[in-house]
Write a structure and sequence with these properties.
Helix content is about 40%, strand content about 15%. The protein is built from seven helices and seven strands, in the order βαβαβαβαβαβααβ.
Length: about 270
């Protein structure tokens, strides 16, 4: 049980990454503070499985763009579960917006949701971890911290901001035994619809741009989060780990590994 006795705060339990992460970490003994916009309704089945695993889970619904809200739920966790040992920030809002015609309100919304919440949570949790001289913060980011989407510059900007926040926090909080790392997560099933673009071909035949032709899953992401949350990663701090199966290497324009008819040429 690699997280036995540890309390993990997942900032968005309702999304696919949150559901996979909560189940994997609960299986390793973690107690969970789960922020759920639905108040737990959208993850009722997963919560049942968490409890079957014998893990404790506190479900809250907080606007993590506000420091007062972050402090409120951390106080609740202190009373019910104990101090948070691991923060997993996985807010991930994608809204189409172009540089030429985009509304300022849309840009602000995406930046607030993806980047401001990362800052607010890191500040609130980091201060408490600093007092205990230990802890782990994991930012679930995106390959679009590096590569434009072609359909939402605000999303790319927000993930780029999180990447630099993680690096800055790793230097400052690292002085107090707190590790801070980020995961640049790549394509999973359905992202071609999420990132549909009129100007970019990045997600055309996207599954075959992964060299092995096999897409990753949110369960793969959860495995990496588990490692970064555990004491096994004690010497990993300030890292940006790209988890995309080699997707971004396709710029070399290798031939895609596509299925072919029996007896035919690959």
């Amino acid at each position: 049980m690699r997280l036995q006795g540890k309390v993990v705060f997942v900032t968005d339990a309702d999304g696919p990454s949150g559901r996979a992460i909560m189940l994997r970490l609960a299986a390793e003994g973690a107690s969970l503070l789960l922020n759920s916009a639905s108040g737990g309704a959208d993850v009722a089945a997963e919560l049942e499985k968490v409890r079957e695993l014998g893990a404790d889970a506190l479900v809250v619904s907080a606007d993590l763009r506000r420091s007062s809200e972050a402090a409120r739920i951390l106080d609740m966790a202190d009373e019910r579960l104990g101090a948070v040992d691991v923060l997993v920030h996985n807010h991930d809002r994608v809204v189409p917006i172009s540089v030429e015609t985009g509304e300022e309100s849309v840009f602000a919304d995406v930046m607030d949701w993806n980047a401001k919440t990362a800052f607010v949570c890191a500040k609130a949790v980091g201060k408490r971890m600093e007092a205990g001289q230990k802890g782990s913060i994991v930012f679930v980011s995106s390959i679009h911290a590096e590569k434009p989407t072609g359909m939402s510059f605000a999303y790319s900007a927000s993930k780029g901001a999180v990447k630099m926040l993680a690096r800055e926090a790793a230097v400052v909080l690292g002085r107090h035994g707190v590790r801070v790392n980020s995961i640049e997560f790549g394509p999973v099933e359905g992202v071609d619809s999420v990132f549909r673009s009129d100007i970019s071909l990045l997600y055309d035949s996207y599954r075959y741009k992964v060299p092995d032709g096999v897409l990753g899953t949110h369960e793969d992401l959860a495995e990496l989060v588990l490692y970064l949350a555990s004491d096994e990663a004690r010497y990993l701090n300030g890292a940006d780990i790209r988890m995309d199966g080699g997707f971004l290497m396709h710029y070399l324009d290798f031939k895609m590994k596509k299925p072919h008819a029996a007896g035919g040429a690959p």
